[in-house]
Design a protein that fits this description.
The two termini are about 15 Å apart. Helices cover about 80% and strands about 0% of the residues. It has helices at about 5-25, 30-55, 60-85, 90-95, 100-110, 120-135, 140-145, 150-175, 180-195, 210-235, 240-245, 250-260, 265-285. Helix 1 packs parallel to helix 11 (about 240-245), helix 2 (about 30-55) packs antiparallel against helix 9 (about 180-195) and helix 5 (about 100-110) runs parallel beside helix 8 (about 150-175). The chain has one domain (about 5-285). It is mainly alpha-helical. It is built from 13 helices and no strands. It is globular.
Length: about 290
Amino acid sequence: MNWFFLTVVCFFLYGIQRFLYKVSAHRNCNTAWTTLSFMGTVALLSAVLWFASAEALKNPLWLLVLAGVNSLTFFTDTVVTIEALRYLPSTIVYSLTRLNTVLVVIFSVVYFKDSLNGYQAAGIVLAIAVILTLTRFSEEEKQHNRHLRKGLVLIGIAVLSGTVAAVSSKFAALYTNQLAFIALTYALSMVFSFGFRKPFEKSGASRRYGEALLIGFFIGLFNFAAFFALLMAMETGPLSIIIPVVGMNFVLANILAAVVYREKLTLLKTAGILLTVISLLLMKLGQS
């Protein structure tokens, strides 16, 4: 299957997943239990499919190392993103956390020697412009948000952990079994979620654990499909194009949040949506 088509599929699936993060935060679900259910769903699905495939294991040492790194960084990214949504609007959180795209593109061009044509380069520049456009705070937002600094610290952690997670996924797509990697990564992440559940069981979080587990289950379904498609795309496609496209998934999450929760879409944020569409079209043209 064409790597660019798989990348666009990831864009939509991850966009829905990120919107479900917003649902979890909006309904004041306990972050640890949502994450535990999410990770457990993906681990179970991938493990069942891996054993059913009877595919021979390759590079077990690489598998262990990459799964360990990816699970820790992805778990960190997930938790701090959900927590940041408690302090800042989804349009700001999703935009700023995607700044890891810039770091991934630089690494990919330098390390993997990605060769880009004019359309692809223009598409990447526009993708980064989308992120930068939507990271601007208005003076009103700065003055009325008492938790701005705390939210920005969480976002900074998400940017760094997201960068490492993306790069380790590329290495896993090249050197390990994809389903085995997903299963081990999410099994470890589930352990992290269970081990760190107490710090997030703070006063004010909802005690309706069933709702948190249900939302986490649906997040897991979308994430499993998205992550598997992402690894397949990374197997043959350039990381410097795949990550900017997938990284714009927050635009879809913002649209869904605006429709469902009536979050305001300003002129600036609407421009960001249009730039996203143009960026996708440019990178599609560059691939044909």
